[in-house]
Design a protein that fits this description.
The protein has 289 residues and is mainly α. It has 11 helices and 5 strands, in the order βαβααβααβαβααααα.
Length: 289
């Protein structure tokens, strides 16, 4: 386990079980960090048809996710937020199990998901954890009852180890936001942190940030925590915090203003319909694939 006792402040992380277009970590973590929460984020890679936070960040030219533990600690001390992956020192067995699950088609196993997520999170030396458990067509958990079982398993593991843990079960029948794909999602994160993003992504990110603020005991109740997270969005401090993190981890923070600096697809195609009407649903899983 990482010893983060040298870093002052309450340490709370947030984890999503994986969804299509789910870039909430990149919105909620900067909002919470700008409110005073220390966020040691050990993130994952893409798994199955869902995107990974580290892959999204690596769309930013120069961005390093392979920080040493000393660099990770120093950045948490200075910036209050850092993103790294599972490493040889932090939850090394999970790296092997993760690859094994992909190869043996056991990605959806509830005990394996719960132990994978919680081993990484508990190794990060946190005080609290907010879990976003996805359910629906684009999630690993297709049924509400399975999502609830997974949420209960993870909350139980955390509480047995005296951590403050909350879980939200959220809809993944439709992709979150409009953008799916690493560089495109970074663009949408930038827009969302400037309060110009899609409603569904903004609402969920604000709620997750508020719960992080509440578990960090920086607000006496959820209503005040929600007000703080909303204020951090509106005054742009979450947006500035993400720029600070990009700078600290070797990327160019200007990518959040100048999208042409991000990788672009070589071809673009507009898909038109043969008749008028409205899009009533989007199959999140096939978009993810």
């Amino acid at each position: 386990r990482l010893d983060l006792s040298s870093v002052a402040g309450p340490k709370v992380d947030k984890h999503s079980t994986g969804g299509v277009g789910d870039k909430t970590s990149l919105v909620a973590a900067p909002l919470a960090a700008s409110a005073g929460v220390v966020v040691p984020m050990i993130s994952g890679r893409a798994l199955g048809h869902t995107g990974g936070t580290l892959d999204k960040l690596e769309a930013i030219p120069g961005f390093r996710t392979n920080l040493t533990l000393d660099e990770f600690r120093a950045q948490l001390q200075q910036v209050g937020l850092a993103f790294i992956g599972q490493t040889a020192e932090v939850a090394p067995a999970d790296g092997k199990l993760y690859a094994l699950r992909d190869a043996t088609a056991t990605i959806e196993s509830i005990p394996l998901i719960a132990s994978s997520i919680m081993s990484k999170k508990l190794a990060a030396g946190i005080d609290g954890l907010v879990l976003d458990v996805k359910v629906g067509a684009g999630a690993f958990m297709k049924r509400q009852v399975d999502a609830r079982r997974l949420a209960q398993a993870m909350v139980g593991i955390g509480r047995r180890l005296d951590k403050r843990v909350q879980a939200l079960i959220t809809d993944m029948n439709q992709p979150l936001g409009y953008a799916v794909g690493n560089a495109l999602e970074i663009m949408e994160v930038s827009q969302t942190l400037q309060n110009a993003g899609p409603t569904d992504l903004t609402r969920l990110s604000l709620e997750l940030a508020a719960r992080m603020i509440y578990l960090a005991k920086l607000a006496p109740n959820m209503d005040e925590a929600r007000e703080i997270s909303q204020a951090r969005l509106l005054d742009g401090s979450g947006y500035r915090k993400l720029k600070e993190v990009i700078q600290a981890q070797g990327g160019n923070p200007q990518v959040l203003d100048r999208f042409e600096m991000l990788p672009n697809a070589t071809g673009a195609r507009e898909v038109t319909t043969t008749r008028g009407g409205y899009v009533s649903a989007v199959d999140a899983e096939s978009i993810g694939r």
